[in-house]
Amino acid sequence: MDEAYDGRQVVGMDLHRRRSVLVRMSMDGRKLETARITNSPAALRAVLARCGQNPLVVLEATYGWYWAADVLEEAGAEVRLAHPLGVKAFSCRRVKNDERDAADLADLLRMGRLPEAWIAPPPVRALREVIRYRHKLAGQRTSCKDQVHAVLARLGIPVTHPDVSGTGGGLWLGQLVLPQPYAAKVASLRALIAVLDGQITRLADQAAQMLAADPGYAAVRELDGIGPVLGAVICAGIGDVTRFGRAGQLCSRAGLTPRHRESDTKVVRGHVSRQGSRILRWALIEAVRHQPEGTRPRQAKDAILARRGPEARNIARTAAARVLLTRVFCALRDGHARSARHPAA
User: Fold this and answer.
1) Number of CB atoms found within 10 A of residue 10's CB
2) 3-state SS class at 245
3) Other residues' Cβ atoms within 10 Å of the Cβ of residue 12
4) Three-class secondary structure of residue 82 per DSSP
5) Parallel/antiparallel/unpaired status of strands 258-263 and 116-117
6) What is the 3-state secondary structure (H, E, C) of 28-64?
């Protein structure tokens, strides 16, 4: 450990669930200390106290990074977040350990080569927590409904109401006389669906309240096909739109731009990357399904289907989602939605 160094320090932190490794470096790459801690705010502050004034600290956007970033910022550090895909090459080294990982993060940061991820502020993180939990519960509700359909299929009962949790489907399902243990299973699934319905509605209302004063949320809601739930998902997935210089950067962040492989004179552009927020892509695809005729996303989708046939419906939806995301970018940037049916020249 070198206590004589009084310049600005760079700290790489290899964060794990229970323990972490921190490597302190000078700005010219001289290693000052390797510290191993058991994860706690007090232990992290103790190491940071030896890092001088306003140190640069980098950690990977891995499991449970929220608390560490908050503690570091409160202690006066300038925190940077490494994108997991950008540092994936670490796993290909012949010798890989926590100290090397932390040192490599610090080296990338001090050399200006760090692939960074955005550190969302606490309000955006809270909104994302609500949105993601609602999305998870909605998937569990769909699973319960599918299991009800599976039980009826095993008994050879044709389903006349696709939505077994709706008013008509619930009445129809309640009139069926099923043998055991199938009747008990269907009753249990219906009870779970009722509980999930209540929780999903509560979370949707909570997200709407969190965005009630957000002008960007109101602007996105003006676009066709985007309701309160999809609007909340889109706003949470994007966060601060000012960090994107143009719509293409936002589309790349959402994984809606094609892969690009170039070597010498050979250039290959493949399918969309699908890197980035999965729930954001889901919301855009869902919004594309509800686009009325005459809107730009609908026109882009119909043009591809007319040219390539129904086999290209997934490609058409993805292309329309990118067009819609461009309109979302403009709405968030300008504070209002442009006319969807009569776009400006």
Assistant:
1) 26
2) coil
3) 29
4) strand
5) unpaired
6) CCCEEEEEEEECCHHHHHHHHCCCCCCCEEEEECCCC
CB 145 within 8 A of CB 193: yes
10-residue averages of pLDDT along the chain (345 residues)? 76 94 92 94 94 92 92 94 82 83 92 90 94 96 93 90 82 88 93 95 95 93 93 94 92 89 86 88 94 91 93 93 95 80 45
For the record, the structure tokens of 246 come out as: 């143009």
Contact criterion met (CB below 8 Å) for 215 and 231: no
Contact 282, 328 (CB under 8 A): no
Stated length of the chain: 345
Rounded Cα distance, 25 and 107, in Å: 8
pLDDT at residue 124 in the model? 94
Distance CA(206)–CA(296), nearest Å, equals: 31
Closest CA relative to residue 33, chosen from 13, 62, 15:
13
Torsion of CA 98, 99, 105, 111, to 10 degrees: -160
Cα 13–Cα 61–Cα 230 angle in degrees, nearest 5: 160
Three-class secondary structure of residue 220 per DSSP: helix
Contact between 55 and 38 (Cβ < 8 Å) = no
Cβ neighbors of 34 (< 8 A, separation 6 or more) are 21, 22, 23, 24, 99, 102
Contact 8, 56 (CB under 8 A): yes
The burial of 219, by beta-carbon neighbours within 10 Å (0-12 exposed, 13-18 middle, 19 or more buried), is given as buried
pLDDT at residue 185 in the model: 94
For tokens 């504070």, name the residue.
Answer: 335
Q: Which pLDDT belongs to residue 135?
A: 95
Give the Cα separation of 285 and 305 in Å (integer): 16
Torsion angle, CA of 145/151/152/153, rounded to 10 degrees? 110
Please tell me the chain's helix, strand, coil percentages from 3-state DSSP, rounded to the nearest 5.
55, 15, 35
| Contacting residues for 167 by C-beta, under 8 A, at least 6 apart | none
- Give the torsion sign (CA, 171, 205, 232, 324): positive
pLDDT of the residue at 345: 38
